[in-house]
Amino acid sequence: MFDIALKMLFGDRAKYAMLVSGIAFATILMTQGFALFFGILSFSYATISNVRSPIWVFDPLVQQIADNQPLRDTDVDRVRSVEGVAWAAPLYIGGATAKLLGDGGSSQQVTLIGIDANTLAGAPTNLLSGNVLDLRMAESVIVDANFVFQVKALRGKELKLGDVFEMNDRRARIVGIASLSQGMGGATSIYTTWDRAKGYAPSQRKMLTHVLASPQAGRSLAEVCRAITEATGLKAVSEAEFKDMSELFMVKYSPIPFVVGLMVVIGFVIGVAISGQTFYAFILENTRYLGALKAMGTSNTTLAAMILLQALIVGLTGFGLGVGVMSAFFSSLPPGRVPLLLLWPVPVGVLCAVLFICMGAALLSVLRVSRIEPAIVFRS
Amino acid sequence: MSTPATAETTATPAPGQPAVCLRAVDKSFRNGDQITPVLKQVDFTALAGEMLLLVGPSGCGKTTLLSVLCGTLHADAGRIEAFGHTLSALSPALVTRFRASHVGFIFQQFNLLPTLTAAENVAVPLRIQGVSAAKALPRARELLARVGIGDKAGERPNRLSGGQQQRVAIARALVHDPALIVCDEPTSALDSVTGHQVMDLLRGTASDGRRTVIVVTHDPRIYRYADRMAEMEDGRILRVLPSPAAIAAAHPHA
Ligand SMILES: Nc1ncnc2c1ncn2[C@@H]1O[C@H](COP(=O)(O)OP(=O)(O)OP(=O)(O)O)[C@@H](O)[C@H]1O
Ligand SMILES: [Mg+2]
Questions:
Q1: What is the value of pTM for the model shown?
Q2: Which among A12, A299, A375 has the least Cβ separation from residue B115?
Q3: B111, B158, B182: best to mutate for the A interface, most A CBs within 10 A
Q4: DSSP B118-179
């Protein structure tokens, strides 16, 4: 009887296409909602994603990456000397103004990242052009591809390797263009060395905001973080924890996640309604034929199995189509610029939701079909 | 009659012997707190090998009676026996199995599954009984050939005329060789010529003496196919005309 169930489903191509696109649409709605939510949250830790360090050490008052409290320069050595630390490197994160040459002094606000010139710890790994090692040369900087994009869009100027601009009246020469994540508000990042950052940043007394560190082989992150905190009184957390802190800060203190979350919930509810209704309507349209099968002696169990099979197939194909469309769309987007993040829990969660909804609608339908008097088939 | 343990076995009565018996059957429908009695103490017998017509004014309960006697509707009271089974005492699951193995259905609206081919539709009762498609489909084509549309086996119902669809339905009702065929207004959706062709086919299925065919109808043109006729009014069997001659005498204009 399962082949008959499939023929009932596939037999009417147009209706099947409607069913599947209904579920696909619901999938797209839910996927984009969650992707948007996580994408927006990921803005909160863009710099953490860009810098990449196993351990981050910073002032105990700091609750998120965008909050830069100065440390003492000696803190790098203090962290380095903690038992279990493999290496420690200084980091500066702060705001700077990039001033383009030759067009009346137009400028761009950027996030300036100063990394240790010796170890280059925290240097971008995803270079589209240029060489990280060139960062050790005088006046050199590595810019975000999004910076290049913005300058092109706003000033009509195509920046390339070797081009020069100014920060704090000092020359900065592009030796690399990296694919980096953008921060909230479109903030792009510019990398230089920690020493040179002093010159590029508006003058500050202390130029150390974070210490990057790594545990020795065989030591756990948590253990080493605890040791650093005990020895230095500074806060030491893993990369994942720091991301979570920044995310949590945003969820707590920014209205955006709430607003987007609300949208996600609404999208989810609409998705549920669409996919549930679509399938239930399909069963309603088939009531007459299900009734005929029942009159002819099909048991309720068999009918239930047929309907569940149909729901499963519709759910899976609709989900596959929806997720396929979404991932094709997402992978066509420039990385880091659009707040959509298709983390694996999103499609898995949406799949569960879609199957749950289809099964729910199927069970409702089963209930309904089990209540049909087979005698209805005699009614015209 | 005693009830065998399973619903599939068939006690085949000799031609002319009672095959389906209803005794003091009541059935009413409830709509909110309004109860409409539809069958009132109905006594009714269909004989093995006969074609029995059930006639009466609209709303008198013909369809309800047909539904009750073939096990698609549960009676409120009374006893229903069919081919050695006491339907009124079987569990719903067993009644379902009784229908699968004993009853062929022919509906006014055909009720063919629109996405299945004619042959696949005809095979459905066999498939319900667990016969594989590979075995059921050749048998289905055989039946289609027997009702004269062997060449339409691969067509979907919407490509067939009303008469052809009803032939498919007849083939479907016969494919599993049931002891009882129930038809509700089988000709009312068909023109006169097609109606007669369909009745000829149905008539033929009863005439081998092993099968009981019960036809609910409004259509006086088909009275002449009946062996016997039961006339209903207001939920009761008014009278039974016991022979074609008696039917012809009672309905001279048919
Ligand atoms: N499921 C139901 N719920 C409520 N009332 C019903 C139901 N089925 C039938 N009835 C009522 O029972 C009565 C008999 O219906 P039934 O369909 O048996 O009549 P019928 O003789 O077949 O009529 P027709 O010739 O018009 O088909 C009608 O008054 C009808 O309204
Ligand atoms: Mg009727």
A1: 0.74
A2: A12
A3: B111
A4: HHHHHHHHHHHTT--HHHHHHHHHHHHHHTT-GGGTT--GGGS-HHHHHHHHHHHHHTT--S
